[in-house]
Amino acid sequence: MKFLNKMKIKIKLSLLLILSSCATIDTNNIAPGYVEAFSSIKQIILGYEENIKPEIISNIPYASMLVKIGRGPTALMILEKINEDEYTWVSSDGVYLVIKNGKIIKTFGLSNNLQEKLTTFKTWKRDSIHAKDFISYYSFNQPELNNLKVNSSFYFQEIERVELIFGQKDLKLIEEYIESDEVGWFATNKYWIDRDDYVWKSVQYVSPRLPAFYIEVTKKPR
Questions:
Q1: pLDDT tens digits, the chain, 222 residues: what are they?
Q2: Where are the domains of the chain?
Q3: pTM
């Protein structure tokens, strides 16, 4: 419990420091919807609001998702760019998540960042991943740790009716069990995907030093 409290404090301090540095951003060069989204995110991170209203998300002309780290506040992230099959999402406080196939492969702006993730995972197809073993290599900074070997296996669970911010969807639940004996790291990631293998919602652990990331896509990239 003490570890979680300390981690929560570190994350909040990190976010606040980044927010202060972002005060120099010239919002005149950003589209109005983007400015409104950024303003809302800042209020939420600083504790001025408890929830992000669906109306705010609907009025933003960008792909977006809700992200929560551990027991922290929920923030809105907006799609900044697409590089082939890698999607970079950004929040107003300078936190970036790079996502590929619905899985976080890089982070920026946190107290401990995943700098690179090399993995043998390629697809969500059942016959390719169910009950099979995969190997990934994680590299971190603050502190630096390169090529941490992580074993993982995927298991298909039942289809669930999932409540999302804009309604319900029937989604397949896939659980990923990850472990690294080197640092004693064990966790379970969860992914809710549709028939097209798109991940709408997930719970992901990306570092042994950070709590879980709770992600819900609110506007799917076109």
A1: 443 444 444 434 344 333 333 333 333 433 444 445 455 444 444 333 446 788 888 888 899 999 999 988 888 999 999 999 999 999 878 899 999 999 999 999 998 999 999 999 999 999 999 999 999 999 999 889 999 999 999 999 999 999 999 999 999 999 999 999 999 999 999 999 999 999 999 999 999 999 999 999 999 998
A2: 2-219
A3: 0.78
The residue whose two tokens read 């540095």 is: 21
| Cβ–Cβ < 8 Å for 148, 129 | no
What class has domain 2-219?
mainly beta
Nearest to 75 by CA among 98, 55, 51: 51
Which among 76, 89, 71 has a CA at the least distance from the CA of 41? 76
Taking CB atoms within 8 Å and a gap of at least 24, the contacts of 119-126 are 121/152, 123/197, 124/174, 124/191, 124/193, 124/197, 124/199, 125/197, 126/156
Residue type for position 88: T
Using alpha carbons only, give the angle 123, 124, 130 rounded to the nearest 5 degrees: 110
The contacts of residue 91 (CB under 8 Å, 6+ apart) are 38, 41, 67, 75, 76, 77, 78
